[in-house]
Amino acid sequence: MSRLPFKWPADGSGAILQQHSVAKLDVLREYLIAYFQTLVTAPGQEEVRLTLVDGFAGGGVFRHADTKERILGSPLVFLKASEQARAIINAQRSKPVHFHIAYIFVEKDRDAIASLLITLRAEGYGPRINQDIQVVRSTFEAKCEAIITAIKERSPQAGRCVISLDQYGYKDVPTSLVRRLLTHLPRAEILLTFAVDALINFASDEPATQSMLSRLGVPDVLQGRTMADIKANERDYRLFIQSCLYRGLVEKCGAQFYTVFFIKTAGHGDYWLVHLSQHPRARDVMTKVHWDHNNHFIHYGGAGLDMFQVLGYAAHRDENYTGQSSLGFEFDDHAHAASVSALTEQLARKVHALDAVPFGTLYSDTCNSTPADSLRYRQALEQLVAHKEVVVVTPSGGYRRKASTIRDSDVIRPANQGNLIFLH
User: Fold this and answer.
1) Longest distance between any two alpha carbons in the chain, whole Å
2) 3-class DSSP state for residue 99?
3) Which CATH class is domain 333-414?
């Protein structure tokens, strides 16, 4: 059964919001604060130029379904996270960095637009409307080209932007649209929600399913199989379809780096928070947010590299498969230990196969296939150094032994007298 659309009262008191959507707002806030800090790296840096886009902005304010608490929506999260990040960054600098940020809030619902304008004014942002804050009544898809142009005009060389596409279900953001954004805005960070369980519930062998998949840009995602065949022959048909969709979406969106994990809803996850970018550093920042806010996320794959090998055909072919979907990887202490343990063995194999590889390359070449962030990679390498399996060599010829000191430019090599205890 699908959810009813948000209703925005004329007095601006806000639509009713469920707890899992509160979690999304928390994650957006923490990601933005972490992202801003990656933009200020040089001691003499004087400014940051950035565009923040909310493609499904809503009415700007909600009432919690259970507590009735007033909760500010994603446009206000963008504004207030920017202010918080600015304060954090400039508190550590003798010369402040100037932030030149433009905000574009897009929403198609007339009542939501009215509520958003009321909320912006109530929070003190009224004088900035139609200046650095643009509120646009439209669908994001209809305004996509104009937004790309506006971002390029503000920052022709960098084109830095964060684009939140918190669609209501799964139909409003075709993969071709995301690909266009990443092609024309290679410094873009895209946060996309995708109601994967709702899509699976809808899917059937009727023509409407094929029409919907074609609209999304993944017409062959089920690999020519019918839903009847999948349900009859896959041990966990939902997991199989999730695996197919995961691969199809990230391939068609054209992102070089991505995360696809579930937001928890009542202890389970029924939709993905997808992060898409063209830079490994961006992927690492998002993955760290997942670990820092583990109570919001769940993953139904493995702990190390090749995290989705338990899905789809692997699950179908494995006679010992017991249903990974009933387990769940929750980015907690147990998941941390499992990730470091798995990476310790898997990275040992990779380093011995490659003979020598910079840490930055090792991470960027493998990160899309793991729930681990670079910290957990470093911790696995620290164990391998301690066991004399590998050595970490600095550009100047020195050696690293601690996880906290390993840098992207350091080269990982097999130790001359490696025990190879992880290779058996």
Assistant:
1) 73
2) strand
3) mainly alpha
Strand partners, 262: 272, 298
Superfamily the domain 15-317 falls into: Vaccinia Virus protein VP39 (3.40.50.150)
- Alpha carbon of 46 to those of 43, 114, 282: distances in Å? 9, 37, 22
Give kind and range of the element (H or E) at residue 208. helix 207-216
Q: Which residue has the tokens 């259970």?
A: 66
Pairing of strands 268-277, 188-194: antiparallel
**More confidently predicted of 327 and 407:** 407
Q: How many residues does the chain have?
A: 424
Q: Which residue has the tokens 């433009």?
A: 102
Mean pLDDT for the chain overall: 88
Inter-residue contact 277 to 283 (CB < 8 Å):
yes
Report the distance separating Cα 31 and Cα 102, nearest Å: 18
What does the block give as tokens for 319?
A: 């006679």
Res 270 pLDDT > 80: no
pTM of the model: 0.90
* CA pseudo-torsion sign 283, 74, 49, 173: positive
Residue owning tokens 């009813």? 4
Partners of 48 in beta bridges: 99
Where do the CATH 3.40.50.150 domains begin and end in the chain? 15-317
Q: Return the structure tokens found at 46.
A: 């004087």
**Model confidence band, residue 134 (pLDDT cutoffs 50, 70, 90):** very high
Q: What is the rounded end-to-end Cα distance, in angstroms, of the chain?
A: 49
Task: List, in order, residues 6 or more apart from 278 with CB less than 8 Å away.
Answer: 182, 186, 187, 188, 255, 256, 257
Average pLDDT over residues 362-376: 95
Q: Where are the beta strands (DSSP E) in 278-407?
A: 297-298, 357-358, 390-393, 399-400
